[in-house]
Design brief:
Layout (H helix, E strand, L loop, with lengths): L2 H7 L4 H4 L6 H10 L6 E3 L12 H7 L5 E3 L1 E2 L2 E2 L2 E2 L2 E2 L8 H5 L2 E4 L2 E5 L13 H6 L5 H20 L15
Helix pairs in contact: 4-7
The structure holds iron/sulfur cluster (SF4) (2 copies).
One iron/sulfur cluster binds next to helix 1 and helix 2.
Amino acid sequence: MRMCERCARTQQTCCEKATVRLTHGDIERIGQYFPVPDFSQNADTSAWEADTADPLFSAAFVRRDCPVVRRTSRGCFFLSDNGCVLALGVRPLICRLYPMSYCERGLEGPIAPGNGYCPPPSGPEVLAELEMADQDQLRAWHRQLYEELRADYRGGCDDGPRRGRPRAA
Ligand code: SF4
Ligand code: SF4
């Protein structure tokens, strides 16, 4: 059983707590794969703080109409007893990269212990359990995330305050 599935079964998954921000690319991909109309909603970003180390992330995601995955009483809309119902290649890009930390310059490594919900992925076996052993794939997703953030930012999201950061808010 994968770690994420174990988490889901014991109801200790990050997916219960996270507010997952979506690029418009995410919304399009998920909509094709999982055609329900109401999986996303606009977030109240008033409490989000700017990440000065990653201005593009902040500028693109932190605005009054930032789309996020809708939450239900159990957490993320896509969370089932067996974990995420979305195939890995369809999940929001920030979910695919979690629990790595990163900024526009590149991947920085796993989040520090205590800074997130996920056990620190300290070795290759744990990374494999999380389907994160393929560094080329991670770099490709990271590139894709920032390309989509650039596209969203150009698309007119410069209309709100500059606040915010992690996947799990
Ligand atoms: S989209 Fe999937 S991986 Fe992301 S928080 Fe929701 S259930 Fe978890
Ligand atoms: S990413 Fe980590 S905390 Fe989240 S469900 Fe998977 S193992 Fe659990």
